[in-house]
Specification:
- By secondary structure, this protein is α/β, with parallel strands linked by helices.
- 41% of the residues lie in helices and 14% in strands.
- The chain is built from 14 helices and 7 strands.
- It has helices at 13-34, 60-72, 91-102, 119-135, 156-163, 176-181, 196-199, 207-215, 250-263, 288-291, 294-308, 315-324, 329-341, 354-358; strands spanning 40-45, 82-87, 110-115, 140-147, 168-174, 226-234, 239-247.
- It has a 7-stranded mixed beta sheet with strand order 3-2-1-4-5-7-6, sandwiched between helices.
- α1 runs parallel beside α2, α1 (13-34) runs antiparallel to α9 and α11 packs across α13.
Length: 373
């Protein structure tokens, strides 16, 4: 898919939303590994652009550097080297980026590597670097940002390579509604996981959500890996693009979902009313079910069934289920507390959060059922 050059004009509102979500995740991600025993922190930005727009608003390379400098100024337990790999294929933009980086004062622990390559070459470079580090038992934390223009770069091979890697979180951008607009043309979804069945219920609004669900089919069966979408309306809603976040660890998805639910307090997944429910939080009705978005109603229905049928029997299982549904521990706790109020579960306290359930080595706490006490 070809498109206009975003860097020849000021970033529009949808681009600013995307960059703000990226900034907030980098801001949450960097301090984690400044306080853990890792040998190296690495950020790979495969479509970096010139670094800023015509109004000098920071693009993704400067955002990463700004957040790193802020984090390094705070107290932290570890001081690993931080390597940033910025790739830009278009030579003029690469030259602008290089001039920008050359004029930026960096901390001694921060090193920037610039690449002028197409995506397959740059991605292969990441693979080589990661494989070499693994062979030398260098423990790294990687964040990959893939801000593609279109839909075609995140192939199954690329997706599988990323999701098979430990301590690697990723954010990739995709022009989701392009697939919906041309759903009758198979070549326009080539390289994506979208199948004919996905297109039946796809609309412009839901295109990104459905696309994220389709990517889950590319995950190995039974693997514990988390994906979550955030849909972004563009051109007054006539187009929907979005970010897909992926992480193998509960800490990563928990942080991303926290940001999403701050941005979208009703559904945690869009900067618009994705389901057309017209709910206004400040104008609650007397009927509770009307105040609750359908997403949370479906989540509650499924979680109730899983808990009462004893397919989920511990706080850790419930927490991880919530993350897999792009909900937070607090949403799950609310459902379980409601089951207690309805006397479908005996009175008990539930601890469902990253601190109690997501930390490596967390001890699961069994859910008590009627007759257990």
């Amino acid at each position: 898919m070809s498109g206009k050059d975003l860097h020849k004009e000021a970033f529009d509102e949808s681009t600013l939303v995307k960059l703000d979500l990226y900034r907030r995740y980098v801001r949450a991600w960097i301090p984690v590994f400044l306080n853990l025993a890792v040998d190296r922190i690495q950020i790979f930005d495969f479509f970096a652009g010139p670094g800023k727009d015509i109004n000098n608003v920071s693009g993704s390379p400067l955002i990463a550097l700004e957040e790193i400098m802020t984090a390094l100024a705070q107290r932290h337990k570890n001081n690993p080297p931080i390597h940033l790999y910025f790739n830009e294929y278009i030579k003029a933009k690469y030259d602008d980026l290089k001039s920008l980086i050359d004029g930026t004062q960096l901390s001694g622990s921060v090193k920037v590597h610039l690449l002028n390559a197409d995506f397959p070459t740059a991605f292969a470079k990441w693979g080589e670097i990661h494989s070499e580090e693994e062979s030398k038992h260098i423990k790294t934390a990687d964040l990959l940002f893939l801000d593609q223009n279109g839909t075609k770069q995140i192939t199954k091979e690329v997706f599988s390579r990323i999701t098979s890697t430990d301590r690697t979180d990723f954010l990739f951008f995709i022009s989701s509604s392009y697939i919906n607009r041309f759903k009758g043309q198979e070549q326009n979804r080539k390289g994506t996981p979208i199948e004919e069945a996905d297109l039946i219920n796809m609309t412009t609004k839901t295109s990104h959500r459905i696309l994220c669900d389709a990517y889950k089919r590319w995950l190995p069966r039974g693997s514990e890996y988390y994906l979550a979408p955030f849909s972004i309306a563009k051109d007054h809603g006539s187009n929907v693009y979005g970010l897909i976040f992926g992480s193998r660890h509960p800490a990563g998805i928990d942080k991303f979902l926290s940001i999403c639910w701050q941005e979208d307090k009703l559904r945690g997944e869009a900067n618009f009313d994705i389901d057309g429910e017209h709910i206004v939080p400040e104008q609650r009705t007397f009927w509770d079910e009307i105040n609750v978005p359908n997403k949370l109603q479906v989540f509650e229905m499924h979680l109730r069934e899983l808990v009462l049928s004893k397919r989920l029997t511990t706080n850790v299982e419930v927490y991880k289920y919530a993350l897999s549904e792009a909900c937070r521990g607090a949403h799950a706790k609310e459902v379980l507390d409601k089951l207690v109020r309805e006397k479908k579960l005996p009175k008990q306290r539930f601890s469902i959060s990253y601190d109690s359930c997501g930390l490596r080595g967390a001890v699961p706490k069994p859910i008590l059922y009627n007759g257990d006490c």
